[in-house]
Amino acid sequence: MMIHSYTLFTSEIDDVENAVQDMRRQLxxxxxQSHAVGVLSCHYDYIAGxxxxxxxxxxxxxxxxxxxxxxxxxxHGGLFELxxxxxxxxxxxxxxxFASAENGQNPYELVAAAYGEACGGGxxxxxxxxGFVSAARPISGDAFL
Length: 145
Known about the structure:
Elements: E1 4-10, H1 16-27, E2 35-42, H2 44-48, H3 51-58, E3 63-67, E4 71-73, E5 76-78, E6 82-89, H4 107-119, H5 141-144
Parallel strand pairs: 2-3
Antiparallel strand pairs: 1-6, 2-6, 4-5
């Protein structure tokens, strides 16, 4: 099994169109295989300004991610960046899920539902799981783990 990894990035924090164009231009250079997923990381302002949502919508694969204060990609780094790590493979299938906890919600049921959604009802057990848990969660991180 082989997974290829590529990086897309933009510094266009205030211009949705230019950010999407940056990503599309870089995506043209990537030889996507049968399956692909993106792991987005960005400063929160990309979410507040709509850039992150527009980038996710423009990409031809599912994207999941998190916010952070600093980004570094080959030959570039800074505080106000958005990057997408693209994982692509012919032999590995990827799944994503998003779950939002409400106060008092059973964390085990929440995680079980997200796990089922990410696995897509498949019978094979995943070989790798990556979880992104918000710092602003209503229950402890230990409950999620």
